[in-house]
Design brief:
By secondary structure, the protein is α/β, with parallel strands linked by helices. The chain has 10 helices and 17 strands. Bound molecules: zinc ion (2 copies).
Length: 329
């Protein structure tokens, strides 16, 4: 399903095209894709809110597939192995960020389904070193929705500095937060969830939230850390005000509408505001292994590959419960 030119999702920006199977280059794998989950970033790309890096492009960066062929010099994989592919599709491995173990900040990073073709397809070519081994125990469809929101939610928890047993706020409760709360509960954290939607508040309590409220409501205890998922600066400020001294707000959003003016008193006492950008392969491996061990199961609906426009439109309208996953085989 190819994007030729971004346009509103109601005009069906993706088009089914038949192409020859791609050939893996040096160090690359050819995957037969079985499932690819749909991310809000895909929607932003298709509608032009995220400028395309090159057109045409095939979106999709939560891919589960099996190795069908190896390019020259590709190691660590055999034909038939199951692999996951996420947003981070490649780095230079040599810049100061990569050298410091923060490849998520690499200046030369390349992203799946943006810099090169992604997983809204029957086949995808990926760099062997950036394919992720998936532990058994997940069905392909179960694994796909973990590979973006799940991994980034996990990194956000790490960036927030939340310790086991700590008091954690989650602001917004979409697909990423529903996975993050399962990790936080596994760590024994007390979780407080703020979201506008009463259905999401209900879901949060079912997943172990101790308290739920709206964005304007203050949790009953001061928080050690908070993660904001809503692309709203006002929500970030609300989270900051709910922090205890020394607490951190991790902002899990590529775009924020704005950063409103704040009173310095809200930041004083060594409170921190941090953005969360992408993730490292280490984050992805840790999260996927943890998700397998504690049986994190995302909620999702399934669409056929050729119905990718429908899945995007449902996502745009807020009709998707949990995640949407394309079945590509
Ligand atoms: Zn994504
Ligand atoms: Zn780098």
């Amino acid at each position: 399903m190819q994007l030729d030119k971004p346009r509103p999702v109601g005009e069906r920006p993706l088009r089914m095209v038949e192409r020859p199977d791609p050939v893996p280059g040096p160090g690359e794998l050819l995957l037969r894709v079985s499932a690819c989950a749909v991310c809000r970033t895909d929607l932003q790309l298709c509608e032009g809110d995220l400028p395309a890096r090159g057109l045409p492009v095939i979106p999709g960066h939560q891919i589960v597939g099996r190795v069908e062929a190896l390019g020259e010099g590709a190691t660590g994989w055999q034909v038939g192995d199951r692999a996951g592919v996420a947003w981070l599709g490649g780095t230079d491995g040599t810049c100061t960020h990569c050298a410091a173990g923060r490849e998520n900040l690499c200046d030369q990073a390349r992203f799946t389904g943006w810099d090169h073709d992604g997983g809204y397809a029957t086949h995808a070519v990926v760099r062997a070193g950036f394919a992720l081994p998936l532990p058994p125990g997940f069905a392909d469809l179960d694994a796909a929705p973990l590979l973006c929101g799940g991994v980034i939610g996990y990194r956000s928890l790490r960036v927030s500095g939340i310790a086991p047993g700590g008091r954690l706020g989650l602001y917004g409760f979409g697909a990423s937060a529903t996975l993050a709360i399962q990790v936080a509960r596994h760590w024994g954290c007390r979780v407080f969830v703020c979201t506008r939607s009463t259905a999401e508040q209900e879901r949060a309590r079912a997943l172990g939230a101790e308290w739920t409220g709206g964005y304007g409501d203050r949790p009953p205890v001061a928080l050690d850390a908070a993660v904001t998922f809503a692309p709203s600066g006002d929500v970030v400020v609300a989270a900051l005000r709910a922090l205890d001294r020394g607490g951190t707000v991790a902002i899990n959003a590529i775009h924020l509408d704005r950063v409103p003016e704040l009173a310095y008193a809200d930041l004083w006492w060594e409170r921190s505001l941090r953005s969360v950008a992408n993730f490292t392969r280490q984050d992805a491996r840790e999260f996927v292994d943890l998700a397998a061990r504690i049986a994190i199961r995302p909620e999702y609906e399934v669409h056929a590959l050729q119905d990718a426009n429908v899945a995007l439109e449902r996502l745009a309208r807020g009709q998707v419960r949990g995640a949407a996953v394309l079945r590509c085989d």
